Amino acid sequence: MRIFALLLAGTLLTNAANAATPPADEALDLAKQAIALRSVKGPGNQTPQVAALYKAALVAGGFADKDVEIVPVDDTAYLIGTWPGSDPKLKPLVISGHMDVVEAKPADWQRDPFTPVVENGYLYGRGATDMKLDGTIAIAALNDLRRTGYKPKRTIIIEFSGDEETAMKTSALIAERLKNAELVLNIDGGGGVLDETSGKPKYWTWNGAEKTYADFRLTVTNPGGHSSMPRPVNAIVELSKALEKVGAYHFAPELSPLTREALAKAAPFEEPEIGAALKAFVADPTDKAAIATLTANPATVGKIGTTCVPTLVSGGHAENALPQRATANINCRIFPGHKPADIMAELGRVIDDPGVKLEDVSEGSVPNDASPMRPDFIAAIDRAMGKVYPGVPVFPAMASGASDSMWFRYHHVPSYGASPTFIKPSEDFSHGLNERTPISTIEPGIRYYRLLFADLSK
């Protein structure tokens, strides 16, 4: 009953904007309404209201009510909207996003994070960048395709998860349901960079891979005893020696077909020393000087291989007692193509101490390989970006963080981050204070999505 009431309210709100509303205005207005809904995990989570809002917009744009499903899950929900194609034998094209946002405390912000504001050419509010505006741009683009009479041959499915920023439970459920998809366009990934000085588009990347997240717990146990009677083996000391080895260890640098192209094409946009090292590494991934330069740089060390770092440590139980237990967490970002179990085994060999127990304690993460460099996807991307942003360099990238693509790739469904949003690096405040995105990105983003959605669903 609650979901029905939300749907009715959302329908009335969205229908107030008639079909003559320009798509860019539709996207901005819908984004404002979505930002005003506090879709944060926990008490008062309004993600189901965002789902109702999006459903109302899709139905007003021509989707059949029965073809837009909202599924409650715990305190959140997910949405799946289906635009049937003319050929049911073709696997569907999936457009993927999420409705939830990271927590934002109003006292820390210059503006209330859940009161959308357009000021000086920017949309401010939690979700302006990650990723309510991107979601509403995609909705507006689909609605505009319908209004202009487009008929897809391949079924188009648009879906939004409800807890991508936390447990990803809805993300996993959606991927399981849609594991027969031909291809996924993840609109929560990729994107363009604006020049810091001129504000003009500098380059744009699509995301074809992401590193697997893993947490490994190190545990050392000991009988303990009185601190006045030290023993030869101390759990804290033993753990410290293991952590020192982990901290000093570097996994073998490597290249994949995707990162080879990504690093080569990104090199001209980096500082000269980093750019030269990227070029040298692509030419010879065993180049020690290039590896040293890239490993020392926090922005590039994760692009050339697996990284593992200690993030938590705990030990002992009293000031005057020998420690009976000491533990630490090692957080790893694993290069595509490797299993977490293999990385844990490698860490075990590095530590080389039978007294240190290793176990995988990862939650909400599954291993996934890179998506293939599909010619049809790359050609469609190049055509769409070439028409909307002629002359702007386009190339692939690998993300270090997890997204809903992880769950599709786990089911061997190719997934690609393909957001059209352009932003200055200095103004990217995703997950941070005073999040904002230039509204100038909306109109070209809709044109880009129209071209891309149509190209891949013909």
Automatic annotation (TrEMBL):
Gene3D superfamilies: 1.10.150.900, 3.30.70.360, Zn peptidases (3.40.630.10)
Pfam families in the cross-refs: M20_dimer, Peptidase_M20
Keywords tagged on the record: Hydrolase, Metal-binding, Protease, Signal, Zinc
Keyword Ribosomal protein tagged: no
Origin superkingdom: Bacteria
Signal peptide: 1-19
Residue span(s) of domain Peptidase M20 dimerisation: 209-355
NCBIfam families tied to this protein: PRK09133.1 (NF006596)
Family designation: Belongs to the peptidase M20A family.
Listed name of the protein: M20/M25/M40 family metallo-hydrolase
Provenance organism: Sphingomonas echinoides
Upper classification of the organism: Bacteria, Pseudomonadati, Pseudomonadota, Alphaproteobacteria, Sphingomonadales
